[in-house]
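W.,

You were right to be curious about this one. When I first looked at the sequence I had no strong expectations either way, so I just let the prediction run and decided to look at it fresh. Below is the sequence, 55 residues in total, followed by the output.
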Amino acid sequence: MKYKVKIEQTDKGYAVWCPVLPGCWSQGDTEQEALENIKDAIVTYLATIEKLTGE
């Protein structure tokens, strides 16, 4: 499954988040690092939801 993310440059690197997954965000020193980090965050987010709901 694919999820759209938003990315924004900050004074400390890049912030990235997934609007359809509340609270799912990450960051990185570079845009590429931030995008890799949000992939991990999305996988962890979905695994946690699955564990909590049993779905």
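Here's what jumped out at me. DSSP finds one helix and three strands in the chain. And, maybe more interesting for your project: Residues 29-55 form one domain.

Coffee later to discuss?

I.
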